[in-house]
């Protein structure tokens, strides 16, 4: 799944943390547009994230369904933009006019100015989401943007007010089980990166550098997600090799060569 273009909040043109009242209002608005064949667009749309996106009835229906449960709403909200601090409004205004660099500059000055507070924590998640959006646009090497976004997200994840932030974009129930939410977030991150670029030894070594200072629980979540992917690839290669050797023992060289050529790469990534 594309974090940005297929994000339910993007499809519906609303911010993370949207109220039930405003979500119902947007649903009625979209249905009215679709019923008369009018193009669905909103002043809140971000040009960089809606380019090439089609708001079909099916896509809209799926987006509303994805936000029915607060757990999913919080998960998708972490990959989207919210308005939780004083600089978020101005930054979002620049995003909506297409000025990605200005929005990133505003959030970046807050994020890198010093420790986050309850009023600036949203700047970190917004900055991280914008890095992922840029990675999809490929204005810069995707790997550096994913790593930059990840490092900023981690500032938010380890902040004492992160639970309150999740309560705002999800609800109190979700906020009581942050480890489950983070496991889902990490898996989304892993799949999204894997779909966008080569997750090789070099990239994983850099991911390891970013997460090495994390508290054990969060660090383990990241390690397990990426390690599981590469371990599964090795297991698949070994199983294929075994099956081919059993079918044609005299031709064991070919599957063995394939195993060496590909498994070693995955093992090096697993080690990283």
Rg result: 21 Å
Total helices: the number is 15
Kindly report the average pLDDT value.
Answer: 90
State the distance separating the first and last CA atoms. 25 Å
Assembly annotation: single chain
The total count of strands amounts to: 0
* Residues in helices, as a percent range: over 70%
Envelope shape: globular
Largest sheet: none
What is the SS-derived class? mainly alpha
Question: Which short descriptors sum up this protein?
Answer:
272 residues; mainly alpha; 0% strand; 15 helices
Task: Describe the structure in brief.
By secondary structure, the protein is an all-alpha fold. It contains 15 helices and no strands.
Describe this structure in words.
This protein has helices at about 10, 20-35, 45-50, 55-65, 70-80, 90-95, 100-110, 120-135, 140-155, 160-170, 170-175, 180-195, 200-210, 215-245, 255-270. The chain is mainly alpha-helical. Helix 5 crosses helix 12, helix 7 runs antiparallel to helix 8 (about 120-135) and helix 9 (about 140-155) runs parallel beside helix 13. The longest helix is centred in the last third of the chain and has 32 residues, at about 215-245. The two termini are about 25 Å apart. About 35% of the residues are buried. The mean pLDDT is about 90.
